Amino acid sequence: MEKEVFPFYSVNLRREMPVHVYGHAGKPILFIPCQNGRPWDFEDFGMARILAPWIESGRCRVWAVYTVDAESWSDQEGEPGQRIRRHEDWISYLVRELAPEILARSEGASGIMSFGCSLGAGHALNLYLRFPELFDRCLALSGMYHASYFFGDYMDPLVYENSPADYMAHFPAGHPYIALYNRNRAVVCTGQGPWEEPWSTRTLEQRFRELDIRVWVDFWGWDVSHDWPWWHKQAAYFLPYLLEERKETQ
User: Fold this and answer.
1) How far apart are CA 6 and CA 33, in angstroms?
2) Mind listing the pLDDT tens digit for each residue in 120-169?
3) In this structure, how many other beta carbons lie within 10 angstroms of the beta carbon of residue 39?
4) Which of 7, 8, 140, 171 is the most exposed place for a label (fewest CB within 10 A)?
5) Angstrom distances, CA of residue 54 to CA of 44, 73, 193
6) CB of 72 closer than 8 Å to CB of 83
7) In the predicted model, what is the mean pLDDT of residues 209-232?
8) How far is CA 196 from CA 115, 142, 143, 153, 192, in A?
9) How confident is the model at residue 38 (pLDDT cuts 50, 70, 90)?
């Protein structure tokens, strides 16, 4: 498959943020690595191999990015307000800087798919829910969707805006985003085995049902652990639905 390292300087983050790009055409996918991960994790942990049939055939093109988790979600000794502001700088980099570049280089694409596993899934779903005009697909595997996992009891407006389990709990019925969500497609999947934390997924599933938001929420078995071999299987299973190659089976 074609691969390039795309140099990119972020004004919001005030640093170089090179992106690893896999493929030549198709639906743009923004791949967000696991906690403290790097762009090449997409390849090193085998996900590029799993998605190769779709990438090589031009059905999707993957843009794998850096996070600033080490300065935000993972920095348990840091001041919480500063940590979440750093994360919001990263959100601004993705939404206002990188996403327009991705779309400009993706002929015919009307939106971007956000994709991540573990903490990357939390970031991916947050982007999908906050910016449905921009992110029209989402694949979130084994995510944690409540900021308390990393910020404990601390809460301010920015933490709230980046905690899907919190803001969806107060999301108003009839909000115009609901029509956008139902026009788009998202999959939220978690296992129930070792190292998985499915409770925040269950919280979101209940709220999606209350608001009549169509998201495919799927719970895999008690043997399904929080690890790459299962994420490989899940990605291969759900990607055809998100690329509109088959319908939801529920």
Assistant:
1) 17
2) 999 999 999 999 999 999 999 999 999 999 999 999 999 999 999 999 99
3) 24
4) 7
5) 18, 32, 29
6) yes
7) 98
8) 18, 7, 9, 21, 6
9) very high
Q: Does this model's pTM top 0.85?
A: yes
Q: Is 115 helix (H, G, I), strand (E, B) or coil?
A: strand
Q: Residue 198: is it exposed, middle or buried by C-beta count within 10 angstroms (0-12/13-18/19+)?
A: buried
Q: Which two tokens stand for residue 163?
A: 């905690």
Domain 3-242 -> CATH class? alpha beta
Of the CA atoms within 13 Å of residue 16, those in its CB half-sphere come to: 5
The confidence score (pLDDT) of residue 241 equals 97
Per the listing, tokens 């998201």 go with 215
Q: How far apart are CA 173 and CA 179, in angstroms?
A: 11
Q: What does the block give as tokens for 1?
A: 């498959």
Which class for 163: exposed (0-12), middle (13-18), buried (19 or more C-beta within 10 A)? buried
Whether the CA torsion 220, 117, 89, 36 is positive or negative: it is positive
The pLDDT score that the predictor gives to residue 248 is 61
Asked whether the beta carbons of 142 and 117 are under 8 A apart, the reply is yes
Q: How many CB atoms lie within 10 A of CB 3?
A: 15
